[in-house]
Amino acid sequence: MKNIVMKSTIMKSIAMKRAITTFAFLLGLASAPAFSQQAYPLSGTWQGDWGVNDKDRNFLTLVMDWDGKAVSGSANPGPDSTQIEHMTLNSANWTVAIDMPLKDAKGQTVQFKGEGAIADLGSQTRSISGTWSDGARKGTFTLTRQSGG
Description:
- This protein is α+β, with helices and mostly antiparallel strands.
- The chain has two domains: 1-36; 44-145, Beta Barrel (Lipocalin).
- It is 23% helix and 45% strand.
- It has one helix and nine strands.
- A nine-stranded antiparallel β-sheet has the order 4-3-2-1-9-8-7-6-5, with no helix packed on it.
- A hairpin with a 6-residue loop joins β3 and β4.
- The N and C termini lie far apart (62 Å).
- Mean pLDDT is 83; it is low at 29-38.
């Protein structure tokens, strides 16, 4: 009788280990798509602002995509949307260079030439902060990647 109880306990222990191993495996499979959706570090929707000082800021949304060779996308989707003309990523130091026309709050076109650094690279809500210029006008910009895009 003692042997039967001992065998039953061992069998339950083996079954429990198998169940835990299977659960851990399935959990790993379920979480894999969340990590793969991040794709290229710049892909997705980014929101933030740019301006010449803390009071003169302009809202900015960038929607970027990586096709395996280059970054493309648009700024401020909608009626005043513009295309990103040129964007590069330096993966040695995780900096970006952006060149695109934008409209400021007064509706005037600004040729935005920005350089910034990516922070929190491993986060889905990573950010880019840096400086921009348009001739003599200079300022700062900040963008945060939106977790859903």
